[in-house]
Amino acid sequence: DIQMTQSPSSLSASVGDRVTITCRASQSISRYSNWFQQKPGKVPKLLIYGTSTLQSGVPSRFSGSGSGTDFTLTISSLQPEDFATYYCQQSYSPPYTFGQGTKLEIK
Amino acid sequence: EVQLVESGGGLVKPGGSLRLSCAASGLTFINAWMSWVRQAPGKGLEWVGRIKSKSDGGTTDYAAPVKGRFTISRDDSKNTLYLQMDTLKTEDTAVYYCATGALWDWGQGTLVTVSS
Q1: Whole-angstrom Cα Rg for chain B
Q2: CA proximity to A20, closest of A31, A11, A29
């Protein structure tokens, strides 16, 4: 199975900060990486698929990049509603594993 | 608008069985690949498995911890997805989410508690 390792596991930042979360796959997954956002008590929401394509309705301050084994999610200017837990996932080969999550907290 | 509504969760003893259902609307279900994802209390997301559409073979894939114990099936005439869970363990305690195949749309989840 492909392992997805996210870093950091938690992160404190301020409104307006630029934030980057990274995800490393245990083998090449081409560009089959996805990113999800989950707020406390809420259903996860797909933000980005295929490494860099924003899901409909997702603000343009979110962006994704990478290929092969290394991927990043960047939030260009943090907004109050962005404080949440973020998960990467690979959809290259089943089982479609998730990373362990990055909790983004307000500094 | 896609709507996915899970049902069937509850309390079950270790070694027991439970069947979850997911009623789908707002999509052409017969053509949809469908997935199950779970989340243990206070933990991260865990992909459980997926079923392809019958036109794409109707095959299933599962995560290692549930393979051989869980079975995903579908009834296209009822627009319903199922997750049959057998030989349940305490570590299967989680909220179970139904989702479209690529996880674009999610249900609200149903809680399964495995405890004696």
Answers
A1: 13
A2: A11
SS3 A84: coil
**Average pLDDT for runs of 10 along chain B of length 116:** 97 98 98 98 98 98 98 98 98 98 94 98
**What pLDDT is recorded for position B102?**
87
Q: Which CA distances in Å does B17 have to A27, B8, B20, B32, B108? A: 35, 11, 10, 26, 22
Assess B40–A contact: CB distance below 8 Å, yes or no: no
Counting as low any pLDDT under 50, the low residues of chain A are: none
Amino acid type, A13: A
Say if the Cβ atoms of A99 and B47 lie within 8 Å: no
Q: What are phi and psi of B30, to 5 degrees?
A: -60, -25
DSSP state of A93: S
Percent of chain A with pLDDT over 90: 98
Q: Could you give the 3-state DSSP secondary structure of residue B46?
A: strand
Give the contacts of A102 (CB within 8 A, at least 6 positions apart). A6, A7, A8, A9, A10, A11, A21, A85, A86, A87
**Sign (positive/negative) of CA torsion A76, A82, A84, A86?**
negative
Partner residue opposite B102 with nearest CB, options A91, A97, A98: A91
What are the angstrom distances between the C-alpha of B52 and each of A75, B35, B72, B82? 34, 9, 10, 13
Query: CB–CB of A44/A88 below 8 Å?
Result: no
